[in-house]
Write a structure and sequence with these properties.
mainly alpha; 21 helices; 2 strands
Length: about 525
Amino acid sequence: MDTKVSNTKFTVAALLIGIFMAALDQTIVSTAMPTIVAELGGLDKFIWVFSAYMIATVIATPIFGKLSDMYGRKLFFLAGLVFFMIGSALCGTATDMIQLIIYRVIQGIGAGALMPIAFTVIFDIFPPEKRGKMQGLFGAVFGLSSVFGPILGGYFTDQISWEWIFFINIPLGIIAFVFLSRFYFDKLAKGKQIIDWYGIVLFTSSILCLMFALELGGKDYAWGSIQIVGLFAFFVLLLISFLLVERKASAPILPLPLFKNKLFTATQTVSFLYGAILMAGATYIPLFVQGVIGGSATNAGTTLMPMMLGIVASSVIGGRFIDKTSYRNIMLYSTLMLCVSIFLLGTISVDTSNLVITIYMIFIGLGVGVSFVTLNMSALHKVEGQYKGVVTSLVVFFRTIGSALGITVFGAIQVSQLRSLIEQNFNDPEMAEQFGDARTLLQPEVRAGLPDNVLAGLTSALADSISFVFQWSVVLPAISLVVVVLMMGKARLEIPRRDKSKTSVLTEESDHLVKDRSVTVE
């Protein structure tokens, strides 16, 4: 029997770098987009720079999670790194917007492998008593990089060039690739594996229909148009076909029996709702600062720093308390904190100060951060080893789908309310149409050209439309609270007691783990 020892220090470093890059590139392009559009053109297509990455990530995440269960984590994490680095290099050399969008798809495919597999490896190489702390560290890095992206994107764009928001991934990716390839050894599958090709095709097709409907609806086509209705109809038909295929597949990409477990179902439901909550805060608070208070794009991005610090602190603390009480108790704190935070954000107005916004953002971070640890741990509670990858990937998948749906629904609510308020305040439908898109009020030259009373009326309407979004979104943590209370039960992290009378491979394994090593057998 050939035994190889994985060095957990270098393995963890590689995984952290992978998560940092994948999460960072969800948001790093936001502050660089004005410069990119000015150089490459394609203003009408710029939103697809974000959407292409998200769509590719959503589709790739559960597929790579399942494949990593079948063929090993190492192979597909390294493949994800390669895809991500190739996509990053190509993005930095793009000469028009179409090229950049295509290259972002390649990046997104890589990210779909990095995030779920990284969290799964933690369960493979650490004993139960250490998993909470490591999940807290990984959750902190995920939250940190997601929120830090706009700030870093602005810095590279202003101080160096926009291409470096992508090129920076190449040296980081190389370091992660070397560390993981040399220092991590996982258990490779034996025998012939069956790939659920029908399931993959149907799943990919259904999610593509859903994401395209969400991205095109209300923008390129009316929500009631045949194109959007048709996309939603195809999504439903393909999803039903996918579920029917998965019921009979010998190695389904989505094992449906997992959803019979109330704890697992509750975890995925809350992940979905939290994805929407986090997106609401990350989208509309910067819009409030820039459009209502009149801050710069950099100030708007910096506003997210308090939320980031709250997420980091909450993730680390949550990781240390995960073995002290039940998953439900921890998530009760999280959902109650979010209910209060979102309720407070629903009270903001044109007179709300930056300090008050900062305090509210800290509360959101403290509520959300602990969920990164708890939801990953509860999803994997008593799950068999062959499902670890797909289970972890589903947490990421539902959170990302929640973000996509959340930004679409909240966007429609905010635009509708803004137009209604402008028309009500000025009795001018044309003005409502002109300033119904809040991005118009973000342009300094537009603001400078407006009379003071008109600008005051518009910013007041914008502030009220944003608070209206949060008044609606408080429903999400409220539903999460109900799900947590009714479905999560008393389950908690179980740490097996060590039996001193048992000396064998188990004792050797424990000794290795104490020395910060993990043992796997090939």
